[in-house]
Amino acid sequence: MLNCLVDAVHSADLATLQGSVRAAIKHEQLPPEEFLHQISESQQIDVLRGCLLVHILSLGTKVPREFHWL
Questions:
Q1: How much is the pLDDT for 64?
Q2: Residue 25 near residue 63, CB atoms below 8 Å
Q3: How far apart are CA 51 and CA 28, in angstroms?
Q4: Higher pLDDT, residue 66 or 41
Q5: Is 62 inside a domain boundary?
Q6: Fewest CB atoms within 10 Å of the CB: 6, 26, 30, 48?
Q7: What is the pLDDT of residues 48-65, one digit of tens each?
Q8: Number of domains observed in the structure of the chain
Q9: 69: pLDDT confidence band, cut at 50, 70 and 90?
Q10: Mapped to the 3 state alphabet, what secondary structure does the chain carry?
Q11: Is 12 inside a domain boundary?
Q12: 18 inside domain
């Protein structure tokens, strides 16, 4: 079951990830909207995937809020 969730997150597009994140994670736990609007669409996908995967794997106890690009 976990593999199916991870695969679904990995293959989701931006709109699907945005909806999934809004449904699963409290707004105050998410990276700020200002941050998301300043990065590219592919970076937004990476951030939302990271948030959702950490949230799932930590059983809803953790969500990353800070991201650094190399």
A1: 82
A2: yes
A3: 13
A4: 41
A5: no
A6: 26
A7: 999 999 999 998 889 887
A8: 1
A9: low
A10: CHHHHHHHHHHCCHHHHHHHHHHHCCHHHCCCHHHHHHCCHHHHHHHHHHHHHHHHHCCCCCCCCCCCCC
A11: yes
A12: yes
Say if 66 falls within a structural domain: no
Domain limits at 16? 2-57
Q: CA-CA distance, 44 to 42, in Å (whole number)?
A: 5
Q: Are 50 and 42 in contact (CB under 8 A)?
A: no
Higher-pLDDT residue of 65, 42: 42
Q: What dihedral angle (degrees, nearest 10) is formed by the CA atoms of 34, 37, 40, 45?
A: 90
> Cα–Cα distance between 54 and 60 in angstroms, integer?
8
Whole-prediction pTM: 0.85
